[in-house]
Amino acid sequence: MSLNRKIKMSTTIQNLPDIAITPEREKVLSIIQAGIDAIDTESVLRKQICLEQKDGKSFLKIKGQEFDLDKYRHVYVLGFGKASSKAAEVVDSILGDVIDAGVVISIQAAHCDHIEVIAGTHPLPSLTNVVATKKIITLAENAKEDDLVICLISGGGSALLCGDEDEVEQGVRLYNEYLKTNGEIIELNTVRKHISILKGGGLAKLVYPATLVGLIFSDIAGDNCDFITSGPTYKDKTTVADAQKIIEKYGLDNFTLIETPKDDVYFKNVSNIVMISNIEALEGMTARATALGLRSKVASSAIYTSADEAVATLQASCAPGEIVLAGGEIRVLVDAHADVDFGKDKNNKIVTTTGPGGRCHYLGMSALPTLRPDETFCAFATDGVDNSDSAGVIVDSGTRARAEELGLNSANYKAHFAGYTFFNKLGHEQIFTGITQSNVSDLMVLFRK
């Protein structure tokens, strides 16, 4: 009997028949699907947000916290990040006419009755983002003491929320330079906080004295929430001096740094509520593994090492007949390199540039040399976009055999960060979901028969 009949699966994975070509792959992909389902933005919000009438009063309930709507003159919605488009749609449908106005910038537009949702650029900021952000700034500045501001915050917002043209110029330079450092995301976002008027608590300062409720979709390993989207609603613990040390540590260019708000008064009316993280994804994946009759364990929810170290960690934790799960992101040092001949494209032209593909494709290539014949490995980007239209990859000994048959050297492709090109040639490894409108870091699965 097919696994799909044993366990009811949704169909987020668009090319499931093409990649579920072994019983082991079928199980791993079922577990990945369970992780996707567990962090579905709409499902999460509908479970955790509602309007309630009590004693003749109207209350907004968010994950156990109550807000008396009768106390507020206006309710505004702001937002930024990869999950904020879908979040805006859901919040708009739940709150309806309670919302007086709203502005959200995400990676795709959406239609809402009360919230304007604008498509911006990511991972690099742009003037498009500035135009949208200025609308957010205007609404934030208009909020008064008796207003409620709900802010939808998810990963990707560091590029999308961009206060002015100067931040665009500095942000682009910073991102491009930082790719070549192997530095941590927390360090990158520390510098980002100090080139922005909105990050590092800057938005909270603008909204003050209104009540501000941040709904946080965590994409940072370990839930260091004040670094998610560079912490626009959190009081920043870092300083200009900290940012300057990071710039000097990695030999970055000169940046004009500003201090973030340090006065407690700007944060006294702020409530930040973590709505979802990869913990929920890993819990959903664990439950699916159990339903499949498999023993499972979570190696870490906060992987932030090199690709080789991440693979080694999972393999060291895995016994025969076990599933090992992890969440987080790998650290990749992107060096300047010469073009390499990767064959011909569909138009019979020689491909000599670095192919697309992100951390998960890189992880897949890193796993291949050490993958045992009885192991299946999967790396998946929860936003559905691993620097390409593919969300990630699933690999096994069959992958290695097909690469050898085609004369493809995975080490060569890995050295040139061309994971998409490599796996696209193999035909049964890439996972396609489209944009999931969720974002809680990457997920990793290792299954040993």
Report on this structure:
There is one protein chain. The protein is an alpha/beta fold and 449 residues long. It folds into 2 domains: 3-38 and 278-448, glycerate kinase, domain 1, CATH 3.40.1480; 41-276, 3-Layer(aba) Sandwich (Rossmann fold), CATH 3.40.50.10180. 36% of the residues lie in helices and 20% in strands. The protein is built from 17 helices and 15 strands. The chain has a 6-stranded parallel β-sheet with strand order 6-5-4-7-8-9. The chain has a 6-stranded mixed β-sheet with strand order 10-11-15-12-13-14, sandwiched between helices. Helix 11 links the parallel strand 8 and strand 9 (270-276). The radius of gyration is 22 Å and the shape is globular. Residues 1-9 and 336-354 have low confidence and may be disordered.
Roughly what fraction of the amino acids lie in strands? 15-25%
CATH class of the largest domain: Alpha Beta
What is the molecular shape? globular
CATH superfamily of the largest domain: Glycerate kinase, MOFRL-like N-terminal domain
| Helical residue percent band | 25-40%
Cα-atom radius of gyration:
22 Å
- Looking at CATH, which topology of the largest domain would you report? Rossmann fold
Q: Under the CATH scheme, which architecture of the largest domain would be assigned?
A: 3-Layer(aba) Sandwich
Given as residue ranges, the uncertain stretches (5+ residues, pLDDT < 50) are 1-9, 336-354
Oligomeric nature of the chains? single chain
Q: Classify the secondary structure makeup into a structural class.
A: alpha/beta
Return the average pLDDT rounded to an integer: 92
> Strands of the largest sheet, in order across it?
6-5-4-7-8-9
Number of helices: 17
